[in-house]
Specification:
Elements: H1 3-12, E1 18-20, E2 23-25, H2 34-50
Antiparallel strand pairs: 1-2
Amino acid sequence: VAMEKIQPALVEAGVWVRPFGRLVYLMPPYIIEEADLAFLCDAVHHVLAGSA
């Protein structure tokens, strides 16, 4: 994944990612609510699907 292109789109979608080479690296808290985890996963999927 070209993080320099993907990261701004993820931030715009409300998801902060930790740059780690070419990986999409999320660091949610261990006590994350199911709805928040679904939001993260949906946003990442939407951004990555749009970049293909």
